[in-house]
Amino acid sequence: MTNSSITDTNFSTAAVRPRPISWSWLGVVPFLLFTLMFLLLPAANLIIGAFQDAAGNFTLQNIANLSQPTILRAYQMSIGISAASAFLGAVIGFALALAAVLGRLPRWVRPSLMTFSGVASQFAGVPLAFAFLATLGRTGLVTALLFNIFGINIYRYGFNLLSFSGLTLTYLYFQIPLMVLILTPALDGLKREWREASAILGASTWQYWRMIALPILWPSLLGAFMLLFANSFGAIATAYALTGSSLNIITILLYAQIRGDVLHDPNLGYALALGMILITGISNGIYIWLSSRTGRWIR
Amino acid sequence: MKQSRIAPWIGVIFGAIYFLVPLIATFEFSLRMERGRYSFEAYRIVLGDPNFQASFGYSAFIAVCTIIVGVALVVPTAYVVQLKLPKLRPVIEFLTLLPLVIPAIVIVFGYLRMYNSSSWLPLTGSARGTDVLLTFSYVTLALPYMYRSVDTGLRAIDVRTLTEAAQSLGSSWPRILLTVILPNVRVAVLSGSFLTFAIVIGEFTMASLLNRPAFGPYLQLIGANRAYEPAALAIIAFAITWACMGLINLFGAMGQQTQRR
């Protein structure tokens, strides 16, 4: 940190010098062109398509058609799974990060946890589905162990890996580590002096957390929750490999629509995509906004 | 302040169980192919499958292309922004975060609409064109990570002094970028590259919707049709992810040592 602030100061003093006309903007042109062609225009194209009928005239009918029961249920299911996995991931990940940073555990615990979180947060997609099928599927190891040792058949009790709870449980495998990775730097930013100062003034541990630590941490916590939410909302590979097309979530519906126009209306497909952009856009927007705010306190 | 150490331990042990049990279960399952005894039969079959070799090779090749295009795109941009156009920084940073805002499936949906065989730039009309489009789609996917990594690397070195020193010795711009800046941010570039590799190698959505024979769709196909091979593949995929992250940590540690020297 000190290192970068030194370069920053050098940088600003040097930048005051007047310069001749510069061609330096040419250096960012390829990047801007690339993002225009392969990010902005494709998205804009879909958004425009969402407001057109088959003949290309302006219409709001596609947006209105989103209220079909299948589509609404798919949005509900996706939002539900994303919210559940983001909430549980945030709570458990926060607890783990707390334990690692402030728990006074042996020195090796923290680097191991961080390395492992780095790996597990990237271990998503199809292989993750395989791992959970081998663990909690009908012939999975944990399913068999629970049955053989405790005589409990979890499938008899209504558990199903190919369902809301099953998918949430599977998503937690990358959500929790992601939370640990995001929150550890924020917890490091809690200065020891704040705790000591509050203790001198007679605050209990509970008061310290409620009145000092949590107010400082909440933008990080909420921001991380939003990122986790968007992360699982846009995910498809795990769900698709786990359930095929049997689970009605929005990404699987959109996948089927792209492959074979299951809604029998291409423009409705664009409206579906627009809805997804709105939801991930809002949650990521809140994350980006909050993380720029936290920058002030946590350095 | 007295603090109990039991709760943190319980938390960490619970976390370890949650993360290790699926791995152990998957590994155990992958060994069960032959009735009544443990064997590596599933691995033998998977590794010997020509489709495995072909799809893995294809994805590895696309991953390398993605890394090259990504580095060529990100390093000059981050460099120019740092050195000359600091006012553009918020715009560029926002653009690099967009792939997190627009889900991958929506991006590729847009491509199919924009670059289909009857459009002005029919990239999906030919296999080579689709490969290019897939590479570009992976570049966008990796953009947030690659940019963040390279930007952090550039902030840690004195870009201005290095550039002025190179200029006063008569270096041209391409030469400054290639022989002065790039070697100085190699640790950042390498971590970005390995992360990109880990993301790209098993990616399913884009490859599947663009109909390319990549590793992700192959995994899905095996998962839908076989019993024990998927578990073996999951272990292999985990090992690859682990190797990429391990290399990032290794290079990171080496970078810190060189800086300290």
Automatic annotation (TrEMBL), chain A:
PANTHER family cross-referenced by the UniProt entry: INNER MEMBRANE ABC TRANSPORTER PERMEASE PROTEIN YDCU-RELATED, INNER MEMBRANE ABC TRANSPORTER PERMEASE PROTEIN YDCU-RELATED-RELATED
Family as reported in the entry's similarity comment: Belongs to the binding-protein-dependent transport system permease family. CysTW subfamily.
Organism name: Kaistia dalseonensis
Main location per the UniProt record: membrane
Domain (ABC transmembrane type-1) ranges: 75-287
InterPro entries: MetI-like, MetI-like_sf
The name this protein goes by in its record: Spermidine/putrescine transport system permease protein
Membrane topology listed for this record: Multi-pass membrane protein
Transmembrane portions of the chain: 20-41, 79-101, 113-134, 141-159, 171-190, 211-230, 236-256, 268-290
UniProtKB/TrEMBL annotation, chain B:
Family annotation (Pfam families): BPD_transp_1
Protein name in UniProt: Spermidine/putrescine transport system permease protein
CDD domains in UniProt: TM_PBP2 (cd06261)
Record keywords: Cell inner membrane, Cell membrane, Membrane, Transmembrane, Transmembrane helix, Transport
InterPro entries: MetI-like, MetI-like_sf
Topology in membrane: Multi-pass membrane protein
Family that this chain belongs to: Belongs to the binding-protein-dependent transport system permease family.
Transmembrane segments: 7-27, 56-79, 91-112, 132-150, 187-210, 230-251
Start and end residues of each ABC transmembrane type-1 domain: 56-248
PANTHER family associated with the record: INNER MEMBRANE ABC TRANSPORTER PERMEASE PROTEIN YDCV
Source superkingdom: Bacteria
Subcellular location: Cell inner membrane; Cell membrane
Main localization of the protein described in the UniProt heading: membrane
